[in-house]
Amino acid sequence: MKVAACRYAVGRPADFPAFAARVEALLAQARAQGARLAVLPEYLALELAAVFPPPVHTDLHASLAALQALRGDWIALFTQLARRLELHIVAGSFLLEIAPGRYRNRSDLFTADGAHLWQDKLQLTGFERQARVIEPGDALHVMVLDGVRVGIAVCYDSEFPLPVRAQCEAGMQLLLVPSCTDTEAGATRVRVGCLARALENRIYVAQAVTAGRVDWSPALDVNTGRAALLAPMDAGLPADGVLAQTADGLDAQAGDAEAWALATLDFARLEATRAQAQVANDRDWPGQWQPRLRRARLQQAPGA
Asked: Which residues form the CN hydrolase domain (predicted)?
């Protein structure tokens, strides 16, 4: 399966048709390069707040409330594009109202045959907690695309091993990570999380990122990080785990011409690497469960 992860330079669309036209052009670009699955970044829907007047798009709470009126258009757009382009699409994320004034950060997956699946973000960042209107998800999913089992970890979720391990134990072979980070430290944390999850579980990881500086949005103000396709660091695979990556999100010279990191993921080959693995973290994972290793004991030198 050829997979594309997007470095999405956040813009300022005048209206929903303008947003739709740009997204369509980007996805068509990925499809023309042979992609069967495309991953867009976290908070993609917040770009649509630009279509509302300043009192709305400069206020996060007002933006979230206003965006709900576009949810139907959002679903229709990506359903239609997935079918017409014959492309599975992770549509970044949309902060969906689940109760009056309460939202979940939902990553929608639209399949080429018309299905609509989803994964909510499970762990909230400090920014999301401070908003006081965003709630964590309460369910973990694995989906099947063309016979490949995939899961989604929304940005910060990629930094937590146990839910991703649960997805792997349900057969996941590819982790999809729509992300949005505004500092180099944040971008590094998510990248390290993605590499660690690939190493621990012998899986591929596709990470999408937002890019650029945005002066009109309090939520999308600065965006950094590299979109990438990642693999375990083992025999027959890249030593640094990087199959493909884009320029950094803050590189103003890299526009939509370098929007995609693309790689063909060979799942049979990945499985075959188990036989000559230098290490096998996925196989040796249960070694952590020994009762005597569940708690550490303070060891003191005599006379200390």
From this structure: 1-267
